[in-house]
Amino acid sequence: MADTATIAAHKQLGVLRTTYRPYRRPSWSERSTSDKATTLALAALPVGFVLLVLVALVVSVPAVGGVLLVVVVVIVLLGASRRRRVAQRMQGRELHFYEHGLVNVGVGNEPPAAIRWDEASVLQDIVRHTRNGSTSHTTYLYTLSAPDGTHTKISGIVGGIGGMERPQEWGQALQKQVTAAQLPRYTRALERGEALSFGDITVSWDGITAHRNAVGWAQLQEIRVKDGYVSLRVAGKWRSLSTTAVAAIPNCFVFLALAERMRAAARS
User: Fold this and answer.
1) Secondary structure of residue 186 in the 3-state scheme
2) Please, is 3 exposed, middle or buried when counting C-beta atoms within 10 Å of its C-beta (0-12, 13-18, 19+)?
3) Contact at 8 Å (CB) between 154 and 51?
4) Alpha-carbon distance 100 to 13, whole Å?
């Protein structure tokens, strides 16, 4: 199997910019004094309370206390086992960002996947998971494909274990690079009178069309993602443009940048 540098050179990706690796919780020795103090403070009360309850139950009702003690031990062991499985699954993963594209290494048994920014078709799925009304963690999943049939997935979690480190950082960088590489080409296509498709959304020099709903650029006051769908504000009112979720629209972030450019130009 060719090494990463050879693959990048073959795809003419240019200079290596950044490398991301699987998320790893810092060990106790790697943490700062303030982080250690915070961890101990947050853990002291719940752990102390559980231990107090267990001791009381073991003394007063040995049978019940013994069962609960076994349950707690099993939960702790299952958590540790899950963390080991995640670490094993992510072992060998690397995500290399180059000047003109990326190389994703170590996804299952698949060979390294190299995709250029100017060729990438990207599906972006960012989900905020809530618990008791507040966000517990956020998952990031990017599915990339290229005209030559290359296909790869990149994932990360903020507030949990698993996936690549710093998903907010590499996710924003990926969006920025793909948009910068493709937006000029799309703009020139519109100037030539071509129509561009982003899923079930069609963009032309005159405006946006989806499901027989057409909006001219001069009518469009604002465009953004609301509740996972593309929404437009026209005549002071918000309305959904598409019934397709943003996560299923290829290069939706490029579409949003293109639409904003055309809207601003029409209104100025």
Assistant:
1) helix
2) exposed
3) no
4) 5
Instruction: Name the 3-class secondary structure at 180.
Output: helix
Distance CA 220, CA 104 (A): 38
DSSP class of 244 = S
Helix (H, G, I), strand (E, B) or coil at 160: coil
The number of angstroms, rounded, from the C-alpha of 185 to the middle of its chain's C-alpha atoms is 25
Contacts 24+ apart (CB under 8 A), 126-135: 126/171, 135/159
Highest mean pLDDT among 173-182, 207-216, 258-267: 173-182
Q: What pTM does this model have?
A: 0.77
- Beta-carbon contacts of 69 under 8 Å, excluding residues fewer than 6 positions away, are 54, 58
Whether the predicted pLDDT of 267 surpasses 70: yes
pLDDT digits (tens, 9 = 90+) for 123-147: 999 998 888 878 888 999 999 999 9
Q: Where are the alpha helices (DSSP H) in the chain?
A: 4-10, 33-60, 62-90, 167-191, 252-267
Q: Alpha-carbon distance 21 to 29, whole Å? A: 20
Class of domain 4-22+93-178: mainly beta
Cα gap 100→12, rounded to integer Å:
7
